[in-house]
Each structure stands twice: as structure tokens, then as C-alpha cells.
Design goal:
The protein is of the alpha/beta class. It has 18 helices and 22 strands. The longest helix is centred in the middle third of the chain and has 17 residues.
């Protein structure tokens, strides 16, 4: 038998394999784990050319797995757009736009973000839109808000998009000025798509820029120890970029792409059946277009999520408004059945318990029809108590994002529209106790960072790891550090159909691992996030080094 290319040893090697959760060493050959176990047993695979990596008192974990992010969006924002740090006040946003405008031609678009969800009411008037006009010097501007579901556009951008008082988009909602009835530039959900399309008509990004955006997104993920992820909504441009990177040996991660069935926020074309038909063009060894993405509702702060109980009453929606789903039972069933017949999985965006129940009802029909496709509820943040056991019974996984529910801006926005219900989100302890598959995702760049350690700490402490806000969120739903590690490794890999390839340091799987300065989950839970990543390895290759 040929010797190993690499043998890794150390005082702490966690495998995320419950049969052997801790080992002394593992061997790698041709990018795969050849053997794991005691140092004596693994050392039998050592040859004269075998590289020895002894991490000493550092810790080795499986490469982290992120079941929900938008890597290309994050890369594009950093490389080609105006990046705004979270929660900037209006005056600073206008200053940043003015600075950007001074560096651009007169007709160039200014695209960027995010602006805070809580700032939208301040922006929804003609006078503030005119301030944005002035800052941009007549250039078109569109800024996304922090959920990435809504946009703020200036007058020139609205003109180019054809949005006028007499010509409003068919989908979503355009917030109008209370005094003169003109569009304020605050565009909720699909109402922002015409602005995105106007930007794309102006040229958008080149294929090389799309490749650069994906490469940068993956590089950032690698720097946080992430070696596998699912992009939660892709275009043909993103698909082509990922395939190109893999074909040239530059894709340093397993990637599962989610093909958009409907598009409430991105403005991609094609979507639906036309996009599914093209998915296989972009399949490569490490890039798998294996899922579809369905937006079944929006986001609670905009009252576009669907709930079983009504929102807090307001002047616009009254006292009995529950929100709506984008599809009824029959339409969702038709899509999931068609997807199942193509052998694909489905990631269904549900931020309300009403939309989540609809997914489970349809899943019950799909399972009765004999289809075993993977189905994910994203983001699994609000679930009726009676529905929690159904996830295990119907083999539906919860794609959770513990980066966006910490006490802070978004929970404050949730409380305004949901009242006390906002304090009962992310029932992760109940899900695990019910036997559900719980998979961790960052939803980056909706979250500021894809740092998996941030997610791990939040799952364990139910508090903000960054100290941005006091308090805890439903502490009874905390899970153990060991469970949290599984959520962001083997669970997430399994949920996206890659459990046989990665997610644990198990012989036969890809040699994907991260070296941390210490055993993060063994120390104080409040210090998990303070653990530096020393190096990240994908398929037995070092793809990131802090040194």
C-alpha cells in the first residue's frame, strides 16, 4: 500500500464522527483521509516522503461547513461596490456616497450597502431621497439594507428603472411619500428588482469580475476555517465563476449551489425551469448545482414574512395581518415534485412560522409520494411548537443562522412587529431534542462575518459574542458546545448532500480541516470567538495560513 502524503498529529483532534469523536492522528493520501485513530496505528502509513504535521497544543477540527451564505455577493461588495459598515447613521452614509461619487464618471452607478433595517423609516420620504441625489451628484445610487431583501434608491436610479407614481413594480412594495405620493426610493422585496435590472443594463460586472468576486468570497471563507458551503441563491454568472475556478484548480472548497425558482430580491435572469435546465453545464468535481432555492416569504421587519398569528397592529396593515406566502400549497407542491423528479434538493426561505408550516405540509405530501429529496427550511427561526417534531418525521432539516438573531438591531426590529414572540426564536434545543437535523449557516453578508466561531458561541450562550448588546435570547434553547460543532460540520454537510464527502474526519472523506490555536469548545463558552485560526486545509492542501 502506498504511504500517506501527510500525517497530522496533535493533542486535540476532534472528528465530528460520534464513533471516534477524538483521535490522536490521521493520515492523508491523494487529498482523502486514509486512516485515523491512535498515533501508533496511523504511523504505519508513514513513508520516507510523508509530511508530518504536529500541531502540538493547537486543536484540529473538521473544516467548518456553512449551509447558507452568499459568497459572491460578499466578494463583489468588497471588490467592486461601496461597502458600508453596519448601522451607520444617515449623515455618514451620505458622506460615504459623496466620497465615492467624486471618484466616478458622471453617469456611473453607485451600488453598495448595507444600510440598517431600522433606518428605513427615516429614509422613506422625498426630502431624504433628495439628500441622496445631492450626495451622488446626479449619479444613480442603489443601496441594499442589511437583510438584503430591500433597497434604497435615489431619483436617477428610479428614473432608469422606470419607477414613477403612475408606474410601480408589480411585485414587492414601493414606499410612497406621505405628503406628495411620490416614490421615496425605499423598495421592499421584489420592488427593488427593476433597479437591479437597470444597473445590469448599464454593464454590470464582467465575467472576470464575477470570477474575482467568487474567488475573494472563498478566500475569506477559508480564512475562517470554512471548507464547504452552500450558496443560497445563484445566477448563471455565479455558476460560471465557480465552475471556472474549479476547472483551473482554484476552487478551495466544496460548493453546493441553489438555483433560484423564484426571485424576490436579486434580479437574476434566468430563473425557474430555464435555470434548472442549465444547471448541469456548471457541474465540476467540487461544485455541485444540487439544490433549488424558493422564496416562500420575505422578512418580518418588512411584514413580508408569513406568520400563524398576526403582526403587531399598525396603521397600514391593521390588527389582523399575518403576512403572505409567495406560493400556495399546490404551486409549492408542483415545484417540489418537479425538483424531486430532477434529483435535486430544495432550500426554502421561511422566516415565519406560517410559511414553515406550509413547507412541512407540502413535505408530508412529497414523502407520501415516495420522494426522498433533501428539503431545508431556511432560516428555521420561528416554528410552531407542534411543528418541531415534524421536521424529524418528514426528514426536513433546519438551516439556522445564529449570526442574525443575537440581541441587537435585527431582534429590535423583530420586536417592533412581533411583540413578545420575537423573544422566542431559534428553538434549537427543542429541534435537537426532537431529533431534527440542524445545520448551521451564516447568511453572510447579511451577517457581518461568516466566522463560524461566532455562530458556535451564539448557539451555546444565546448571547451576542461581539458584545454589541446585553442580554440573552431564550436561554432555554442553548445547546452544548459539542452539538454546536456538529451543527457547523457534519450536520450542515449532511443537509446539503455532502455528508459522504466531508463534514467529519472520517477515513474515505476529503481531508478538509482547520487548525485552531486551542480547543475552542473545551474552554469558557464566552471565549470561543477569541480562538484564532492558524491554518485551513482543503483536500489535504493548505489553503489559508495566518502566518
Amino acid at each position: 500500500m502506498a504511504p500517506a502524503d501527510l500525517i497530522v498529529t496533535g493533542s486535540v483532534i476532534r472528528t465530528s464522527d460520534r464513533r471516534t469523536p477524538l483521535v490522536e492522528a490521521f493520515a492523508v493520501r491523494d487529498g482523502r483521509i486514509l486512516a485515523s485513530g491512535t498515533l501508533a496505528a496511523v504511523s504505519t502509513h508513514r513513508g520516507p516522503e510523508t509530511r508530518m504535521l504536529d500541531v502540538g497544543t493547537a486543536a484540529v477540527y473538521p473544516g467548518f461547513v456553512d449551509v447558507h451564505n452568499h459568497h459572491a455577493m460578499a466578494g463583489r461588495t468588497e471588490l467592486f461596490e461601496l461597502f458600508l459598515p453596519a448601522s451607520l447613521p444617515l449623515e455618514v452614509i451620505l458622506d460615504r456616497v459623496r466620497e465615492k461619487a467624486e471618484s466616478l464618471p458622471e453617469d456611473a452607478w453607485i451600488v453598495g450597502g448595507p444600510v440598517s433595517t431600522t433606518l428605513l423609516p427615516t429614509l422613506a420620504n422625498t426630502a431624504t431621497r433628495m439628500l441622496l441625489d445631492d450626495a451622488a451628484g446626479g449619479r444613480p445610487v442603489v443601496l441594499v439594507e442589511d437583510s438584503r431583501h430591500n433597497r434604497w434608491a435615489n431619483t436617477r436610479a428610479l428614473e432608469l428603472a422606470g419607477i414613477t407614481p403612475g408606474e410601480l413594480p408589480a411585485g414587492g412594495e414601493v414606499l410612497l411619500d406621505a405628503d406628495d405620493g411620490t416614490p421615496t426610493g425605499v423598495l421592499l422585496e421584489a420592488a427593488g428588482i427593476p433597479v437591479q435590472e437597470a444597473y445590469d443594463r448599464s454593464g454590470g460586472l464582467t465575467p472576470d469580475q464575477h470570477i474575482a468576486a467568487s474567488r475573494r468570497g472563498v478566500d475569506i471563507l477559508n480564512s475562517f476555517g470554512i471548507t464547504t458551503f452552500q450558496d443560497a441563491g445563484v445566477s448563471t454568472d455565479i455558476l460560471a465563476a465557480l465552475a471556472s475556478l474549479d476547472r483551473t484548480g482554484e476552487l478551495n472548497a466544496w460548493v453546493v449551489s441553489s438555483l433560484l425558482i423564484n426571485d424576490e430580491i436579486f434580479g437574476f435572469d434566468p430563473i425557474g425551469a430555464a435555470l434548472i435546465d442549465r444547471g448541469e453545464e456548471y457541474r465540476t468535481p467540487h461544485h455541485r448545482p444540487d439544490f433549488v432555492k424558493i422564496f416562500l416569504d420575505g422578512v418580518p421587519p418588512a411584514r413580508t414574512a408569513s406568520f400563524l398569528e398576526p403582526y403587531v397592529a399598525d396603521a397600514v396593515h391593521g390588527a389582523h395581518f399575518h403576512g403572505e406566502t409567495t406560493m400556495d400549497f399546490d404551486e409549492l407542491h408542483g415545484w417540489l415534485r418537479a425538483v424531486a423528479e430532477r434529483g435535486l434538493g430544495a432550500k426554502v426561505h421561511c422566516t415565519g412560522d406560517g410559511s414553515a408550516r406550509l413547507v412541512l405540509d407540502v413535505a408530508e405530501r412529497i414523502r407520501a409520494e415516495g420522494h426522498s429529496i433533501p428539503i431545508q427550511i431556511a432560516h428555521g427561526q420561528f416554528l410552531a411548537e407542534d411543528d418541531i417534531p415534524r421536521l424529524r418525521a418528514l426528514d426536513v432539516s433546519a438551516d439556522i443562522s445564529p449570526f442574525i438573531w443575537f440581541p441587537g438591531v435585527i431582534p429590535e426590529a423583530l420586536a417592533e412587529v412581533l411583540g413578545d414572540r420575537a423573544e422566542h426564536s431559534q428553538p434549537n434545543r427543542a429541534l435537537l431534542d426532537a431529533g431534527a437535523l440542524v445545520a448551521g449557516g451564516s447568511d453572510w453578508p447579511v451577517s457581518e462575518s461568516p466566522n463560524t466561531l461566532e455562530g458556535l458561541q451564539g448557539l451555546v450562550t444565546r448571547a451576542d459574542p461581539l458584545g454589541r448588546a446585553p442580554g440573552v435570547l431564550w436561554p432555554e434553547q442553548a445547546i452544548t458546545p459539542e452539538e454546536a460543532l456538529e451543527v457547523f460540520t457534519i450536520n450542515a454537510a449532511t443537509a446539503m448532500g455532502l455528508g459522504g464527502e466531508t463534514g467529519s474526519l472520517t477515513p474515505g472523506k476529503s481531508a478538509d480541516f482547520v487548525v485552531l490555536e486551542r480547543d475552542a469548545i473545551a474552554g469558557p463558552a464566552a471565549e470561543i470567538i477569541d480562538t484564532p485560526v492558524i491554518s485551513t486545509w482543503f483536500a489535504g492542501r493548505e489553503v489559508y495560513s495566518a502566518g
